[in-house]
Records
---
Amino acid sequence: MPSRRLEENVKALTFDVFGTVVDWRGSIIREVVAFGAKHGIDTDPAGFADAWRAGYRPAMQRVRTEALPWLKIDALHRLILDDLLVKYDMRGLAEDDIDHLNRVWHRLDPWPDAVSGLTRLKTRYIITTLSNGKFSLLIKISNRARLRWDCSLSAELFHHDKPDPETYLGTADLLGIAPSELMLVACHPDDLRAARAAGCRTAYVERLLELGPGHPPPRVEEGEFDVVASDFVQLADRLGA
Amino acid sequence: MPSRRLEENVKALTFDVFGTVVDWRGSIIREVVAFGAKHGIDTDPAGFADAWRAGYRPAMQRVRTEALPWLKIDALHRLILDDLLVKYDMRGLAEDDIDHLNRVWHRLDPWPDAVSGLTRLKTRYIITTLSNGKFSLLIKISNRARLRWDCSLSAELFHHDKPDPETYLGTADLLGIAPSELMLVACHPDDLRAARAAGCRTAYVERLLELGPGHPPPRVEEGEFDVVASDFVQLADRLGA
């Protein structure tokens, strides 16, 4: 249990988004299943979702190193999708249908506890995002999913990706608070460890199904983080909100 | 009347805040009146409000040129307030009371039409702030006043103040849209003219009482801006929201 002192010292919570707030994998699987049914295509929805996500960093890298013209996030997702459609032998689709599927990234659903937990946490703390995802995508996801952040922040604003300390320190600085008054909420221990090393507080939320069943849970040491919670509702309980 | 085409092309509205969304002057006057009554001090609330606001830029300048240590926004407002307390002969006050008065900048009230207009506009457009005010202050004001932006943006993020084009272009870029898909909403014609010159759309909202009664309204040419509205509710009407 966190001490009362922790609750009093923390002024703002900043949330990792993909995996921690939204169930990106489940959302994509659901849409790929529906897409396959509609178009009479036999798909591997889970493999498709994982491959799409895994393609993000290499595609970003390709844009950088091949000096491709700067791509908007939708175009970047489309670059990966076009390869996947070939790989999964999904051919002869209409452009409108492909475009709709591509925008599934705007339609990621929050975990079932996210909105109710955030609503409670917002009564006591400033709540923000801190994601390596593109700012414009965060806005679209949050708008659709009715995630009422006090503000959205993306690593993009700091010209560094997590886990670089500039991202956590930059967040605290923008919010006008000390790093020790900022708590990162995430389901990825590495992200949390970097935030802790930067002087921030940490809350580990277990999203054991982020990568689907059969994946071992991340290894976390006892007492490694200030708070451990199974979801955002329990996090609100633990943080007195 | 804007054309239907304008409504369809504009994807996001970005709002000037001080004057356009919040009635900074009226809010401060109300608090200074209450403060004076509580402490038995005869004040000049309107003069006090105007002097406090007018002191902001010189104080910022002083911090920069005298290489004062970087000041948080509350400390900057306090620097000005301490001078004003002497000037207005408001002496012998307790530190807690001065500190409370200083934080009136967190408690600025929106104009009466702001929340209802924004609620309607948000159903159709992404809505954000674009203020020269400090990011942390925008968050505090919006949180208290229940202004449900899709995101808060401050000129601070772009390392330029309005009316530099980097601020308008940077906003469009972060939102992943073209400048022509972004509309600035403001009560200050100069701000709007700069946004227009940067390729953005413009909505002039008349806040004729921003500076109190007796000030002539800003000079605006017929047809100079895409939309002219008396308040945010009329703006929602005009923009089909």
Note: The interface with chain B takes residues 72-74, 126, 134-139, 142-143, 148-152, 156-157, 174-177 of chain A (CB under 8 Å).
---
Amino acid sequence: MFIPIILGTAREGRQSEKAAQFVLEEVLKYGLESEILDVRDFRLPATDASKQSDVAKKLAEKITRADGLIVVSPEYNHGYPGELKMMLDMLYTEYAHKPLGICGVSMGGLGGVRMVEQLRQVATELHMVNIREAIYFSGIQNLFENGKIKDESFGGRVKTMLDELVWYANTLKQGIK
Amino acid sequence: MFIPIILGTAREGRQSEKAAQFVLEEVLKYGLESEILDVRDFRLPATDASKQSDVAKKLAEKITRADGLIVVSPEYNHGYPGELKMMLDMLYTEYAHKPLGICGVSMGGLGGVRMVEQLRQVATELHMVNIREAIYFSGIQNLFENGKIKDESFGGRVKTMLDELVWYANTLKQGIK
Amino acid sequence: MFIPIILGTAREGRQSEKAAQFVLEEVLKYGLESEILDVRDFRLPATDASKQSDVAKKLAEKITRADGLIVVSPEYNHGYPGELKMMLDMLYTEYAHKPLGICGVSMGGLGGVRMVEQLRQVATELHMVNIREAIYFSGIQNLFENGKIKDESFGGRVKTMLDELVWYANTLKQGIK
Amino acid sequence: MFIPIILGTAREGRQSEKAAQFVLEEVLKYGLESEILDVRDFRLPATDASKQSDVAKKLAEKITRADGLIVVSPEYNHGYPGELKMMLDMLYTEYAHKPLGICGVSMGGLGGVRMVEQLRQVATELHMVNIREAIYFSGIQNLFENGKIKDESFGGRVKTMLDELVWYANTLKQGIK
């Protein structure tokens, strides 16, 4: 089962990279195939849903093969990063019937939850299935030490999300055949 | 397959009843079992998630048996009616893994879409699956004549919603067993 | 300056009452006139925007006299309590050009922020002015001891909210005259 | 009074340009100073809130001088265009206490209302004041003929928005001095 992880910010000095790396390790440990799709590698200067660009083709290959999707992204001014939205808007039908798990990242105490809520609205339009479980990386700037997460409860949270994500991925596939 | 329809307003003179009645007829025509769950019959004076009230028990019986759910509701001040929220908040686990289709109703031209978006956020927390298709009954006060809908395209819209709702209901059931 | 506080849940055993009581004390200490408008005293069995009910008249008297408004409310299933919505929907023009500060309450760690966001959308339709500052009472069940708040930083948070609320109340009044 | 108009999409073949041009004419006719701030002229490859880039400096000059702001933008997959979000995220304090009017644009019948709602959530975090009035350019692809808008009621809608925007701009300025 292939569950890629979209890293949703290209900002210089981004903290979300640590969270994405941690989630990737947990997903691999869980026994799934995965990789990080870094928004830095999927950029266009303007929204383009034509699917004709090279990056759109590269993204389409990944999303088509994916059984589900995880997004790890910070919240900027209560919304999602612009570069993440432009990346998602490159495709449309490729997302259909795939479950989505969202991990919010913030410096403050609310873990990017408003970004999570806005992104879920977008995902519904993309025919994705929002799972209930989300993960909130609050206080990201103090959460990691030497590349290791300090709060060990996050391992269990990712596992809970993956249980649900994998259940949906397996179940939805039975409807598509 | 049992797809009940929640009528989400108890307001005197409610227009949404006509839309709910129309949707019910289309759902029956489609070959599904259905009935209207009128919020007037599921009221409490305060939010109560104890599931101990008689109306909560009556609702639990219906939701447990349901394969999916349709809500027909007006938008009041860009949100959902309070009585609808109190009704939904009576239960929790009963909703899990069931698809939800929402029909918005408004006097104006935007068909209750903001209520639809807010309700979808609630539904995700209830572990329901939001389907992409929604129906927008704009200008409800002029949409019916002698109990018949004047714009015949709504029949096709309900069918499109039901196709998706039934697909999800059938598919999700395979994961639950 | 009169800044009443709406307590937005009528649920048996509600925890938000402690938060509302705390906010009331801080508002009085700040030198403002205030009182709690308890949703238990402003209930109707169905949404009614006719303004003809006794409770609507009682609420209209309070809101008309208010210079701004604070809502203290829990989040139920990622939305606002139904009884709060029915209370707010009783009126319309009375709210115009008044600033609104929202205090979210939750048992979990996100302080009712999703309720805050949904309520802000409603407030915009009511012509109210959403101030940026909000207060999040996370883990409410452990936040008070013998009627005193254990985390003293909340005093400063209420003051920050009131600074902004009072600035808006004073400023907006100059436009109305 | 200076009320610039942000054109929020850089997409090839964008239809929103016609709506922005129409709004500009109406704003000038109303007697205000205005100009279009085209997102094509305010682009960065990644979110950058450092305010150090040339485009951020150019934008800061405009926003600082503005008494209020209008955004004209399409809705893409129920959200705002990524390039618009990256443009707004360039600044922060410059937006404070300024009113915002949003014009949604869509090919379908709902006029970009979901983008409007998401953008309002962002604007609250930017300390802007969301005015109630919004304008919905539904069916944009058929709305203009030879550069003229076919539905003349839009002139009145812009006027209603400007009445409110100017009232807020004038009123809020009195609080800042």
Note: The domain at 5-176 of chain C is CATH 3.40.50.360 (Rossmann fold).
